[in-house]
Design goal:
Layout: E1 4-10, H1 14-23, E2 27-33, E3 56-57, H2 59-68, H3 72-78, E4 82-84, H4 86-89, E5 90-94, E6 97-99, E7 108-110, H5 113-125, E8 130-133, E9 137-144, E10 147-155, E11 158-163, E12 166-169, H6 177-183, E13 191-194, E14 198-206, E15 221-224, E16 240-246, E17 250-258, H7 266-273, H8 280-286, E18 289-290, E19 295-297, E20 302-305, E21 317-319, E22 325-326, H9 334-351, H10 357-382, H11 396-419, H12 421-431, H13 437-441, H14 444-458, E23 466-468, H15 482-491
Parallel strand pairs: 1-2, 1-12, 2-8, 5-15, 12-21
Antiparallel strand pairs: 3-7, 4-7, 5-6, 6-23, 9-10, 10-11, 13-20, 14-17, 14-18, 14-19, 15-16, 16-17, 20-22
Helix pairs in contact: 1-5, 1-9, 2-9, 9-10, 11-12, 11-14
Length: 495
């Protein structure tokens, strides 16, 4: 069903491209307006500074993009993306030491943000009714009788207006659309915020060839979680660290923290790397060839513009991605949330008779439910930090309780997931935004699995070993087999 002649998407990043894919079956012409001149290949650009850091493509995002653009995942892998099982392909340092290597329910696609966008642009350019306009600055909306009827733009050729039957705001954290709507007579939307002062810094490297890598490098991804130690320790032990594989035999070495100053220079980056919880991170970088300077990002606060709370939202306008709800990037929720919102938009359009005010209000209401899942996950972690500020900041007594229980609770879930397939499956769904944390924690079977694991741990009868020495190489043994796990637990094997 064609719902209008022209739809306009503001922004040509992941959220905008996915929105264009959602709109294409329902409008005669879809125009994507992007400020940058877009590269033909997978290259960094000014409008996406976060592309220089690791990006996880969660399963919910993989599925949403795949439904919008059939064949996307195969094309991403063909272009160099890696399909891995983190529990088998990643060395994971959590709690007091390395976790055991074993199969699990979760797989992921590893690639750079720039490759994801390049493959999406290729998919968009294959759609005959989608136009991708570059070098365009959007500086206003046209509004008439409570409806958005077009956008005002500037190009190298001058100013112009594009009339539109429908507009999607995908301009990210810095979107001015809310300000333009206030100027047109709408009230300022309520805004929920929580900034946990997250800063992260990354550097890109070329890996050595497979023949030149140490025999102990069974892993492709290295993850170092913050220490649970509450006593005196180097600031770097509080860092979340990734040695993150991407296409073309490259990795992104990334360190991030809540509330700590992070290294800005190459020298400081290398010095900090040698003080993290395991020497493996720095030694791995030493074997690689650096290909970039250090990139630092501080714009990481959680921010939800509550357009859904307007009693009379504009007709002909919706919001996707960071323009409505931006998350702490540590939790890898941005791309998947944006893609899922675009898929939700396509589903609503397929049922709509028109894109009137009722349509826009209904979409915002359903989108609220979708965004609530990742938002609550982000709050569950960030509200526990003393440095966190914003409208969602907890009273100090509540913050202390959350800080005290969140770490042990997470460790309990991770430990139970090592040994219980049902807990593992639910934990994978929560991590990938396919299930809320509340749904998981109200499952009788999950609760039984957590209690059973807690009892076994108290008796020293865990089936899968953990806590391997962080100063040593992570163990290569595959503990997927119940026999292997039982033998290791009985003999204390740590290989």
């Amino acid at each position: 069903m064609v719902l209008g002649s022209v739809a306009v998407v503001l922004g040509g990043s992941v959220g905008g491209l996915c929105s264009a894919g959602a709109l294409a079956p329902h409008f005669d012409h879809v125009v994507v307006l992007e400020r940058d001149e877009l590269p033909a290949d997978a290259q960094h650009r000014r409008g996406v500074p976060q592309s220089k850091h690791p990006h996880f493509l969660l399963n919910s995002g993989r599925r949403a993009i795949g439904e919008l653009f059939p064949g996307f995942e195969d094309e991403l892998i063909a272009a160099g993306g890696l399909h891995l099982m983190p529990s088998m392909d990643a060395a994971y340092l959590d709690g007091e030491g390395w976790s055991a290597r074993k199969s699990s329910a979760m797989t992921m696609i590893y690639s750079s943000r720039i490759l994801i966008e390049r493959v999406l642009r290729d998919k968009i350019r294959s759609l005959s009714n989608v136009e991708l306009r570059e070098g365009v600055a959007v500086h206003g909306l046209s509004v008439h009788d409570g409806a958005v009827t077009g956008v005002q733009i500037s190009t190298s050729a001058g100013d112009e207006r594009i009339d539109a039957d429908f507009v999607v705001d995908a301009m990210g954290r810095g979107s001015s659309v809310g300000d333009w709507l206030v100027a047109a007579g709408w009230p300022a939307p309520p805004v929920q915020t929580l900034d946990a002062k997250v800063t992260y810094t990354s550097r890109w490297y070329d890996l050595p060839s497979a023949e030149q890598r140490p025999s102990s490098w069974w892993w492709q991804h290295l993850v170092i979680m913050p220490t649970p130690d509450k006593g005196q320790h180097p600031a770097e032990h509080d860092f979340l660290v990734n040695f993150f594989p991407v296409e073309d035999n490259r990795v992104i070495a990334c360190m991030g923290s809540w509330g700590h100053p992070m290294p800005r220079s190459t020298e400081a980056f290398l010095e900090s790397a040698r003080r993290v919880r395991t020497p493996l991170f720095a030694s791995a970088m030493d074997r690689c060839t650096p290909t970039s300077q250090v990139h630092l990002t501080r714009s990481t606060g959680n921010k939800w513009r509550r357009y859904d709370r307007w009693s009379t939202p504009p007709k002909g306008l919706v919001f996707v991605g960071d323009s409505i709800c931006a998350f702490n990037p540590f939790y890898a929720q941005g791309i998947s949330s944006a893609a899922s919102s675009a898929l939700l938009l396509r589903e609503h359009l397929s049922r709509a008779g028109s894109v009137d005010r009722r349509f826009c209000a209904g979409f915002l209401a359903e989108q609220r439910k979708l965004l609530g899942v990742p938002w609550r996950l982000a709050m569950a972690r960030d509200q526990g930090y003393e440095c966190a500020v914003g409208t969602e900041q907890l009273p100090e007594w509540k913050r202390r309780i959350l800080a005290a229980v969140s770490g042990p609770a997470f460790s309990l879930i991770v430990g139970a997931a090592r040994e219980d397939a049902v807990v593992d499956e639910h934990f994978s769904k929560v991590f990938n935004l396919d299930e809320s944390l509340g749904q998981m924690m109200t499952s009788p079977r999950v609760l039984a699995g957590l209690v059973r694991y807690r009892i076994r741990a108290a008796l020293g009868r865990e089936r899968v070993p953990y806590g391997f020495d962080p100063q040593a190489e992570p163990p290569a043994t595959d503990y997927s087999s119940a026999d292997t796990a039982r033998t290791a637990a009985r003999t204390g094997t740590q290989v």
